Amino acid sequence: MSSSATHLISDSERAFIIHSVQDNHRIDGRQCLDYRMIEVETNKISSCNGSGHVRLGNNEVLVGIKGEVEEPSPTRPKEGRIEFFVDLSANASPEFSGRGGEDIAEELAIFCDHAYHDCLDLESLCIVPGKQVWGLHIDILVLEFGSRASLFDAAGIAIKAALYNTRLPKIDFGEQEEEGSDEEDYDIADDPSSVFKLDISRVPLFITLTKINAFYCVDVTQEEEIASISSMTLAIDSRGNVLHLKKFSGGSLNPEPFKDILPRAQQIAIGMHSNLAQKLHQELEILES
Question: Which residue, among 277, 254, 255, 274, has the nearest Cα to 266 in the 3D structure?
Answer without folding.
Answer: 274
